[in-house]
Amino acid sequence: MRNKFDQELENLHGDLVQMGHFIETTIDKMMSAFTADNYELAREVYENDDIADDLELQIERRSLRILLSQQPVARDLRTISTALKMITDMERICDLARNISRTVLRFEGQELIRKPENVLLMSEKCVIMVNKCVQAFINNNLNLAKEVIALDDEVDALYKNVHDNIAPLVAQNLRTVDQAVDLVMIAKHFERIGDHTVNIAEWVEFNITGEHKSHKLL
Amino acid sequence: MNLHYGAFHALHNVNLGIDENEITAFIGPSGCGKSTLLKSLNRMNDLVQTCRITGKITLDGEDIYGNIDVNMLRKRMGMVFQKPNPFPMSIYDNVAYGPRTHGIKKKSELDRIVEESLKNAAIWDEVKDRLKKSALAVSGGQQQRLCIARALAVKPEVLLLDEPTSALDPISTVKIEDLLLELRERYTIVIVTHNMGQAARISDKTAFFLHGEIVESGLTMDIFSNPSDRKTEDYITGRFG
Is residue B191 part of a domain? Predict the structure, then answer.
């Protein structure tokens, strides 16, 4: 029954899984690039941004074609709405990973200052949040989605701490002031990545329950 | 081509190509000429005495209103109507009717055609144990798939369907739509439908008719996402018609 429609939904799911795995890989590489000063990985992440853009476009096209041709309702409508909303956040996560990688590349050849522990912790948590939100979507797992939402407060607190303690970082060495500022910017990017994973988790929740941030949208 | 019923000019300067192994949908409000054109494609309008056609309709380059055998034309262009119209005979005899008319008498051959046609129409599993029962005893949706099997039994190249699901429930409609999507691999299909969703779901190309003219035709995705004519947009969005 509705073989073509089911096939189209399956293809859409496949595309989203592919994009989900791509952002997981991107975030992993970016984190290694940042924590281990691996400029080769940073360069790879920086140069691979087009892939996320292409996947986003492919999913947008597929979703709109399904909306147009199949007039989905109920669960099917939620799935396609979720896809259209999620991919914006997925693509933004890749953009932010690219921004971080670009900043890491600026450090190349410089005398490196010690990275604040809290920024490293933020990067670890962001990797976990990205993995969890992707898995929440792939497996329709509400608990994982809720875990992502809960983790965001920790990332926000870490960012506030980094921001509030910028002075000693700057004072370490006047020759590395730019690097200190860049590290705060990287922390800000991590904080934004956390926000985007929360958005994804909230759309996963909508897909499963029909409620978005405790509101009925339909 | 142009078509007149007496003094009434029913189709104006219709110029349309129908590609093979595709589903082409004719849409438009009642009385716009879409069924008239469909019937012209296998010369069903020959039965209307006042009907006069000028211009050409060709099948693989051959003028179907030229010097051809009309029975052979209708064998090549099968038709299924809005209301399921099985003959008052058994399921088997309904499907075997066409092949018998075309001279096939051998029982094993007829058995093979009946089974193959019913399978191709996705109804074999539902009726294989009651082939000798009356075709009128099965449900409306099954009757319509039986009519499609009957059309397929004479090995047509083109299937013409005039609102084939408008008398059916949603489940039967989905079955017919899935069937047409499968049949598209082997047949060229032209369907008249009032159901915009159906046209969007299953057709590759769409032609929008209004007052006997084709306002717009093209890829279904284009027509339904960004029609070039305002009248098309108003019709498919339900603003008139």
Answer: yes
- Give the closest-approach CA distance of B220 to chain A in angstroms: 9
pLDDT tens, residue by residue, B39-98: 999 999 998 999 999 999 999 999 999 999 999 999 999 999 999 999 999 999 999 999
Query: Does residue B218 have a pLDDT over 90?
Result: yes
Interchain contact, B225 vs A64, CB within 8 Å: yes
Asked whether residue B150 is assigned to any structural domain, the reply reads: no
Task: Pick A1's closest partner by Cβ from B178, B197, B221.
Answer: B178
Lowest-pLDDT range, A38-52, A198-212, B166-180? B166-180
Q: What is the pTM of this model?
A: 0.86
Contacts of A4 in chain B (CB under 8 A): 178, 181, 201-202
Residue B232: inside a domain: yes
- In DSSP notation, chain A reads --HHHHHHHHHHHHHHHHHHHHHHHHHHHHHHHHHTT-HHHHHHHHHTHHHHHHHHHHHHHHHHHHHHHH---HHHHHHHHHHHHHHHHHHHHHHHHHHHHHHHHHHTTSPPPPPPHHHHHHHHHHHHHHHHHHHHHHTT-HHHHHHHHHHHHHHHHHHHHHHHTHHHHHHT-GGGHHHHHHHHHHHHHHHHHHHHHHHHHHHHHHHHHSEETTEE--
Q: Answer whether CATH 3.30.70.3040 is correct for domain A3-216.
A: no
Domain boundaries of chain A, sorted by first residue:
3-216
| Rg of chain B over all Cα atoms, to the nearest angstrom | 18
The total of structural domains in chain B comes to 1
Write out pLDDT tens, residues B21-36: 999 999 999 999 999 9
Q: What is the pLDDT of residue A175?
A: 77
What is the CATH classification number for the domain harbouring B63? 3.40.50.300
| CB–CB contact B178 A69 (8 Å) | no
A160-189 b/e with 16+ CB inside 10 Å = b? ebbeeeeeebbeeeeebeebbebbbebbbb
Q: Which domain holds residue B221?
A: 2-86+157-236
